[in-house]
Amino acid sequence: MRVESTVGLCFAGFGNVGQGLARILVRKERELAERWGLNCRTVAVVTRTRGAAVSRDGLSLAELLARAERGEQLGTDRITPVEAALLPQTDVVLDVTPTNLKTGEPGLSVTRAALGSGRSVVTSNKGPVSLALEELRELARERGACFRFEGSVMSGTPSLNLAMESLAGCDISHVQGIVNGTTNYILTRMEEGCEYGEALAEAQEKGYAEADPSGDVDGWDAAVKAQILASVVLGSPISLDAVDRTGISSITRSDVEAAASRGRRIKLIARAARTAGGVSASVSPTEIPLAHPLAGVGGATNALTFTTDNLRDVTIIGPGAGREETGQALLSDLIAVA
Questions:
Q1: pTM above 0.85, yes or no
Q2: Where in the sequence numbering do the catalytic residues fall?
Q3: Is 13 left (phi over 0), alpha (psi -120 to 50) or beta?
């Protein structure tokens, strides 16, 4: 039996990902209510540079999106993200603040405060998951809250929820895949004849890579995702420092052509695996046979292969970035919480 629920939402951050979720909530408001019994009331939106807006009766997401499009302030309320998370009307905090892998802030403080007060948290922010996963999970258990973070690995393409829910009952021994769209785009373009620098410039022009691309090309983004996969899917928490990391900046077009001559393709592969000594995780450019499911994944697309006992290999392919794509991950977690 479907249970109707009205969920009070607090957006901590309202950049690309927050706006992506907001667009879906506006566009599919009726369907979410009729099909999933989910009614949302946005009680607070707090940003670092565009102000904050609070309303116990509910803010108009359509109006907030219009203000964001026009580059206007979202509101003039004086409130911190932590204070907004603790409002009596807040049921679920959406942490869509930028990722900081050194401190986890500001998302970590917001998440701690929300879970500690019994509010659930849905996030796409890798920082708190990387730095304090076990602490936050325990806090959620103690307070009867939920902490979900599907969007931290493959945007809206289900990876964590696939492993933990759809593959429940399987023993997963190995996970490997392409979890960074920027590097996959660069390697794809190099195979098509571009030099590394030219392919990187294209990725930056298309918005796949930042002005400082080191987080992608040096393997940091893929490494934290490998860490999360090891900790969540294989159940063995490890630190980011324990991930053996090599990026793609030293790969040349001749390397790519040489691999092709051997019937292979270079991909930046993130891995987490059970070993005799426990669980290991790594990220490195790897030659894989053209017949492998991951070899055909081109452009900015992501993919993961789960090696299981009951189903052998299960591969999922889909978008690894994007406003509404990541918004979909938040939405699926929000529906699960509600």
A1: yes
A2: 225
A3: left
